[in-house]
Amino acid sequence: MVDQAETLVQLGKRINAEKEALPDRGRRRHLSWGMDFDTRSVTLAQEIGDHWDEENKALWLKNKANVREGLKTEFGELGIDAKIENFMAIDSKPFSTLSYHNRFFHQVRQAYVIGAYYPALVGACALGERILNHMIIDLREFYTSTPEYRHVYRKKSFDNWDVPIDALASWGVLLPDVAQEFRALKSLRHHSIHFNVETYSTLKDDALAAILHMRTIIARQFGSHGLQPWFLNGTKGHQFIAQDWETHPFVQTYYLHNCPFVGPLFDMEYGEQGWQFHDYPDYGERGWTDNEFARAFEERTPEMLASQRNVQASDRNS
User: Fold this and answer.
1) Are the beta carbons of 226 and 35 closer than 8 angstroms?
2) d(Cα 81, Cα 32) in Å, to the nearest integer?
3) Which of 81, 217, 276, 284 is spaced 20 to 30 Å from 124 by Cα?
4) What are the distances in angstroms from CA 217 to CA 108, 140, 185, 223, 256?
């Protein structure tokens, strides 16, 4: 996470300001990067296909056994079948950009897997409220001229979810389906956290519903890949932030600090220090539209990539 002395908002603004000094900034886009995910439940749920050859069947069985052993180590062998059933029920952890929610959602998921359904339920609801509060507090200074600002500018937190949901939706921050998911989670929160005798009989189902609401919220609003409007279309294998969205308050605050500013011929390699990015120092001053950038990315060949050009230059100089 960002140091407390420099908030995400300040960091996003600084990144945008620093880009102004780059002469080729019009030919670069932010690569969606820095993500949190867990797809082991997909492996467990997948069935052997009738058309698979013996090698693929053996590989699938090995992968499934490895996932099961990993879960046994992570959650304990006692009651492992029920734990695996719970793990599959909450589905995969969505590909998400790194922000405030990641570690808390991980803890909520862990609680459900081991059968701690009430902590999972309360945790999922509390996380939804925390995300709404973060988004309002982080972003409201961008919207001081809107009618909604007078309802949110003084408070340090909001327990009435309708206020932040309505404001964020009006500002064009929350996607419409995400706003609906928050409203559904709000109803579940009121039903579960305020005293209600029925909670005892619906606890497991309510906890699962709350987790799946949060899963959709995170996948759609904070997803590192998908059909969100801020992603550029037409680039296979990677997704980039569309140019018009780079200065949008939400994208600027929650995405840019994770997303390298690259040209279409960048490439990367994994080493001892993690992923290393290679890119050209200058792509030229004339800017590209998003479609032109996508075309340059799609038409690139292995020989054109930045690391390959460096290798070729070294060969010529040797």
Assistant:
1) no
2) 36
3) 81
4) 14, 20, 10, 9, 19
Residues 107, 85: Cα–Cα separation, whole Å:
17
DSSP-derived secondary structure for 189-228: HHHHHS--TTHHHHHHHHHHHHHHHHHHHHHHHSBSSSS-
Question: What does the block give as tokens for 203?
Answer: 């606890």
Q: Where are the domains of the chain?
A: 1-34+229-318, 92-221
pLDDT tens for residues 75-98?
A: 999 999 999 999 999 999 988 987
Rg from Cα positions in the chain = 23
CATH class of 92-221: mainly alpha
**pLDDT tens column, 131-159:** 999 999 999 999 999 999 999 998 888 88
**Rounded percentage of the chain residues whose pLDDT exceeds 70:** 95
Tokens representing 160 are: 């009435």
- Residues 110, 119: contact at Cβ < 8 Å? no
Residue 275 forms beta bridges with which residues? 270
DSSP state of 107: H
DSSP 231: B
At CA 140, angle to CA 136 and CA 142, rounded to 5? 140
Closest CA to 79 of 42, 47, 116: 116
And the tokens for 182?
Answer: 């928050």
DSSP-assigned states of every residue in 28-95: -EEB---EEEE-HHHHHH----TT--HHHHHHHHHHHHHHHHHHHHHH-STTHHHHHHHHHHT-PEEE
Q: Strand 35-38 to strand 93-97: parallel, antiparallel, or no bridges (unpaired)?
A: antiparallel
As given in the structure block, the two tokens for residue 187 are: 């109803």
Assess contact for 278 and 306: CB atoms under 8 A. Answer: yes
Q: How many CB atoms lie within 10 A of CB 79?
A: 13
Q: How far apart are the first and last CA of the chain?
A: 43
pLDDT of 315 > 70? The answer is no
